[in-house]
Write a structure and sequence with these properties.
CATH topology: Nucleotidyltransferase, domain 5
Shape: globular
Helix content: 40-55%
Number of helices: 9
Strand order of the largest sheet: 4-3-2-5-7
Radius of gyration: 17 Å
CATH superfamily: Ribonuclease H-like superfamily/Ribonuclease H
Strand content: 15-25%
Number of domains: 1
Length: 219
């Protein structure tokens, strides 16, 4: 038997001219936590969080929810994240959590999603939606790793905390979705400020720098 995937219809990005300065845009910075890295097979989403950036500042809008993975959480993940079975017991399932996140993003008039190694977080959302037989068209996604690679080219791909220290931005609770989203948001603001000093200050510049990541996310 074949099942046709249903389309989730959310306006996750606004149409604006590519020449628009990114100071005039709103970005949703998000992060996920999961039971592990084998997202394509058995690992599941357990936390989803986001904050928003406008005018190159982190604003007061934020979203956070735990997610019931409907499976056990490995001990090493509990130790890393502090997320226990008790904490997710009465949490929404992944579809409800993702829809809440999309509603937050839509209500905030966001122009793009941002993450640190964003392809992993987008893959988490994609796989969870597939389990519920849904799909969605991904909006513009910007990876802080791409911006870092433009500003400070390196063969190394370091973790979020290392880059936050390198660029002198605030570090929040690690391996918690809201904390990592906040850390990424402050790092993102600093990176955008630095890009302006390089003469890169428009949406077109961000699209160009993020082009490889965006192509990889066309699922």
């Amino acid at each position: 038997m074949f099942w046709k995937k249903q389309q989730l219809n959310y306006q996750l990005e606004k149409e604006v001219p590519l020449r628009t300065p990114f100071r005039d845009l709103t970005f949703t910075i998000f992060d996920t936590e999961a039971t592990g890295f084998a997202i394509s097979s058995h690992d599941r989403l357990i936390e989803l969080a986001a904050v928003q950036v406008s005018n190159l500042e982190v604003n007061s809008n934020y979203f956070q929810t735990y997610v019931n993975p409907q499976r056990s959480i490995p001990d090493d993940i509990i130790e890393l994240t502090g997320i226990t079975a008790e904490r997710v017991k009465h949490a929404p399932d992944s579809l409800e959590a993702i829809e809440q996140f999309f509603q937050f993003t839509e209500a905030g008039n966001s122009h793009a999603l941002v993450g640190h190694y964003v392809s992993f977080d987008m893959m988490v959302l994609k796989k969870e939606l597939q389990r519920h037989r849904y799909r969605f068209r991904p909006p513009l996604c910007i990876d802080t790793l791409d911006l870092i690679g433009y500003i400070s080219p390196s063969k190394d791909m370091r973790d979020l905390e290392t880059y936050a220290k390198q660029f002198g931005t605030r570090i929040y609770e690690r391996h918690q979705a809201l904390g990592d989203a906040m850390t990424t948001a402050h790092l993102f603001c600093e990176l955008l400020t630095m890009l302006e000093s390089y003469g890169k200050g428009t949406l077109a510049d961000l699209v160009d720098i993020s082009s490889m990541t965006q192509r990889a996310l066309q699922f």
